[in-house]
Amino acid sequence: ERINPTGKKALQAELREGSLDMVIEMAESQEELGASVLDVNMGMNGIDEKEMMLKVVNELSLTSNLPVSIDS
What CA dihedral angle connects 14, 1, 25 and 9, to 10 degrees? Predict the structure, then answer.
């Protein structure tokens, strides 16, 4: 569950700004390290979690070949 803003202030700040750069970097890193699934959680204060999850899943579908597990 690396794609999760809990306890990751830099990721939280990026998500609040609408940037998905760190999410993409995390996904690429996990794929390179042999992950078979990307576990994604967007639970944090200050954003519309549902909207952000939709954006992240859409972006990952374009940038990664791995399936996505939605952790809500």
Answer: 30
